[in-house]
Amino acid sequence: MSTYAALPKVELHLHAEGTLEPELAFTLARRNGVSLPFASEEELRAAYDFTDLQSFLDLYYATTAVLRTRRDFHDLLWAYLERSAAQGLRHVEVFFDPQAHTSRGVAFTDVVDGLHDALTRAGTELGITGGLILCFLRDRPVDEAARTLEEARTRLDVLLGVGLDSAEVGFPPGPFAGVFARAAELGLRRVAHAGEEAPASSVAEALDALGVERVDHGVRCLDDPDLVARLVREEVPLTVCPLSNLRLRVVQDLAEHPLPAMLAAGLKVSLHSDDPAYFGGYVGDTFDAVAAAQGLDDATAALLARNAVDGSFASPQRKADLR
Ligand code: ES4
Ligand code: ZN
To answer: Site annotation (Important for catalytic activity): which residues (predicted)?
Structure first.
């Protein structure tokens, strides 16, 4: 076994809703009397054959219908945490999409409190630290994001930051500048998905218009050498998700994933799982997949793990423990 298996894993790009395995989806559907448009777990899993980001998002939002109560959100994230603890997870900054739930009549506080219950329990029972990052849906109106941020003011103590996700092409970061400025005023950290399917210019726009401290995906930055130079100079962490890129056909083959080029350029890259229930792997599996497809020497594995620690919003004390 390679030594990377023993490295402490820090997950910075993980959507809570993307950890919903078919088994739990059907359990929650039965518990809540919600029907899923699939006859069985096998049929649902067979639908995990995506052609692009949108084809995935359609299924991802459809299955969230089973999540209704504070307990559901706890059970969802707890299942992820228990499973990932076995793969060496030590710290996780969890994205969640409140608008995907409040738009269905679920209370914002039930979403946040349920997820927070699971993280609190993980601290005591698993020694895993972490926090919650509220993501705005970029394909929904800006004023809806602004209202969501106002709702979040009742839970600022349990929120680490804000992010931006969902359909990227046609939904640039710029219009969310005001919402992100307000989030910064409230003391929240800022990240955004950029350069996943949309071009490199969307990465620069996220940095300039939103003031993000970390970029999620960012793989398309390689198309623009000036942008790469800036990301290196400013040491902007990029949370790269190879299995996601493969399953959403951003790359055709893991062997061709630009991770080595990103590392060679000196970018602050780390490895993450994005939506592990849908993309075929949790954080440890992601390291395994990269190792199998591209090789992963000990120094590179250690650098990837170290970049995740450095790029996290953990306290200086916790970062020292994780290194
Ligand atoms: C997502 Cl892979 C990805 N990209 C953008 N938004 C998302 N939400 C959940 N997974
Ligand atoms: Zn993502």
So the answer is: 217
pLDDT score of 165 more than 90:
yes
How many whole angstroms from 186 Cα to the centroid of ligand 1? Answer: 25
For residue 16, which ligand has an atom nearest its CA? 1
- Mean pLDDT of all residues belonging to the chain: 97
Q: How do strand 214-217 and strand 9-15 relate by DSSP bridges?
A: unpaired
217 in a labelled binding site:
no
Mean pLDDT for 190-194 is 99
Tell me the best of 57, 64, 220 to mutate to test the pocket of ligand 1, counting ligand atoms within 8 Å of each CB and taking the most: 57
pLDDT at 2: 59
In a domain, 278, yes or no: yes
249: left (phi over 0), alpha (psi -120 to 50) or beta: left
Consult the annotation and say whether 257 binds a ligand.
Answer: no
Q: Does the annotation flag 165 for ligand binding?
A: no
Query: Percent of the chain, pLDDT > 70?
Result: 99
Is residue 23 in a domain?
no
pLDDT at position 122: 98
How many folded domains does the chain comprise?
1
Distance 6 CA to ligand 2 centre (A): 25
Going along the chain, which residue ranges are E strands?
Answer: 9-15, 89-96, 129-137, 159-165, 189-194, 214-217, 237-240, 268-271
Q: Would residue 84 count as lying in a domain?
A: yes
- Domain that includes residue 236, residue range: 37-315
Residues ≥6 apart with Cβ < 8 Å to 280: 243, 247
In a domain? residue 12? no
Q: Read off the CATH number of the domain in which 82 is found.
A: 3.20.20.140
Are 237 and 319 spatial neighbours (Cβ–Cβ below 8 Å)? no
Strand partners, 10: 91
Task: Kindly indicate the confidence band of residue 3, based on its pLDDT and cuts at 50, 70 and 90.
Answer: confident
Residue 217 CA to ligand 1 center (angstroms) comes to: 10
Rounded to two decimals, what is the model's pTM? 0.98
